[in-house]
Automatic annotation (TrEMBL):
Chain spans, region Disordered: 23-58
InterPro entries: AB_hydrolase_fold
Keyword hit for Signal: yes
Protein name: Cyclin-like f-box protein
Compositionally biased residues, Polar residues: 38-56
Gene3D superfamilies to which the protein is assigned, alphabetical: alpha/beta hydrolase (3.40.50.1820)
Keywords attached to this entry: Signal
Record field: transmembrane: none
Region forming the signal peptide: 1-21
Length: 338
């Protein structure tokens, strides 16, 4: 355990010089290392992949798989008895082929988190504790700048490719690692990760995870691609969470995303009441980007992770400590910023 924390401190120090989490411009347009500086991806690669223990006693494994030609680093936090086998957990996967699916689906679900630009939440792993029968998974963006969807700002030029890789990692690789119920796969998007989730993943991949849900923290885009099956919105819970002092670019894109998803659900045949049961929004906290606790980015993201089941699972009471009930229906909702 001491070894893990020492490596964690090393990892965090490597990222201290970067501006993390906010959707931002690429450093040189291509994610390279101008002036000889390492990219965020290269810095992340220097942080060792070690097994450790979550704060609730779950086991955390840190692995890498090749998915569709992309190197996908990910962590899984689960009770010891949920892993498929000790050997499967400890080896590093070099090539992700279709899983044998020789194991029976588990009874627990997943909460898969996509971090913000720069990767802070990958190393923090705010969703590492089992909550409401959901095990934690966090995935590192396969991009030189660690931007989910690549590109820069609101332009996520690799959004479709990265979304496909995330879906394939869950459906093809994850069953080789841990037993889980494919009918209970939920997601969290943080900032840039939320841009990719809303812009590309939900319309193109969410039909593979029926009855799931998505928490979009401090980021949102209207669908940038056509829905494979718009009817997925009839079974998907979506919550948009922002703050009063959100980034200027997101003050426009988040309301646009809220309206676009509400309209897509209506077009799929849902009534206004049905839409409001499934899609909710809040920007009550008087904080900056992702500072849902009105203190800071890291603690704000942790606050939402701690309240995940209340906010995103159907039947949740919507309560978040310090904020109250954040589940306001999106139909007719008007977000105001300062």
């Amino acid at each position: 355990m001491l070894r893990y924390w020492s490596w964690l401190l090393v990892g965090l120090s490597l990222f201290s010089s970067l501006t993390l989490a906010a959707p931002e411009r690429g450093r040189n347009g291509t994610g390279g290392n101008r002036n000889g500086r390492q990219t965020a991806q290269q810095q992340a690669a220097s942080v060792p992949q070690v097994e450790s223990t979550a704060s609730d006693g779950s086991r955390i494994v840190d692995m890498t798989a090749t998915v569709n030609g992309l190197q996908m680093r990910f962590k899984v936090s689960a009770p010891e008895d949920q892993f498929v086998s000790t050997s499967a957990v400890r080896r590093q996967l070099s090539n992700a082929t279709s899983a044998s699916n020789s194991t029976s689906p588990g009874t627990m679900g997943l909460n898969v988190l996509l971090h913000g630009d720069g990767g802070q939440s990958f190393f923090d792993f705010p969703n590492q504790n089992v909550q409401a029968n959901l095990m934690g998974v966090v995935i590192l963006a396969p991009d030189p700048n660690l931007f989910w969807g690549g590109g820069q700002g609101l332009q996520r030029t690799d959004g479709a490719e990265h979304s496909q890789a995330v879906a394939d990692l869950i459906t093809d690789v994850m069953p080789q690692i841990v037993n889980f119920d494919p009918q209970q796969v939920f997601f969290t998007g943080v900032s840039g990760g939320a841009l990719m989730m809303s812009g590309f993943f939900i319309p193109r991949q969410m039909q593979k995870f029926p009855k799931g849900g998505v928490l979009l923290n401090c980021g949102g885009l209207p669908p940038q691609v056509d829905f494979v099956d718009p009817n997925v919105l009839a079974t998907t819970t979506i919550h948009h969470q922002s703050t009063q002092q959100e980034l200027a670019s997101l003050q426009q894109s988040i309301p646009d995303a809220v309206a676009a998803y509400a309209q897509a659900a209506s077009d799929a045949g849902l009534s206004a009441d049905q839409v409001n049961q499934l899609q909710t929004v809040d920007n009550t906290p008087d904080g900056g980007h992702c500072a849902f606790d009105e203190v800071g980015f890291v603690s704000g993201i942790q606050l939402m992770a701690d309240s995940y089941a209340n906010v995103i699972q159907q039947g949740g009471n919507g309560q978040v400590n310090g904020i109250g009930n954040v589940r306001r229906g999106v139909v007719g909702a008007q977000l105001t910023f300062v």
